[in-house]
Specification:
1 helix; two-stranded antiparallel ribbon; L-dopachrome isomerase; dopachrome isomerase activity; Tautomerase/MIF_sf; about 80 residues
């Protein structure tokens, strides 16, 4: 089975939910995948790798962003007009 990932990056001067009181860069990273995150067995590894990538490539402090891993249902995800499940 092929793996498909959806990565959406949102960066703002102020992210109200962080409430850290500075204007340093911050972000919310959401990663959705079909059947990848449900078991939780690789979630820590994936979260750590995404954290390192965002920190290295965007220069955002690791404590200034959230990483959210979402397990998507195949019958609710479409690509090219066709559902995956």
């Amino acid at each position: 089975m092929a793996s498909y990932y959806v990565l959406q990056k949102k960066q703002q001067e102020l992210l109200a939910s962080l409430k850290l009181g500075t204007t340093e860069p911050c972000a919310n990273v959401e990663v959705g995948s079909i059947s990848t995150f449900a078991s939780g067995s690789n979630n820590q590894k994936v979260a750590s790798e995404i954290t390192e990538l965002v920190h290295k490539e965007l220069g955002i402090d690791k404590k200034r962003f959230y990483v959210v891993l979402t397990d998507l249902q195949a019958n609710r995800v479409s690509w090219g007009g066709n559902l995956f499940g």
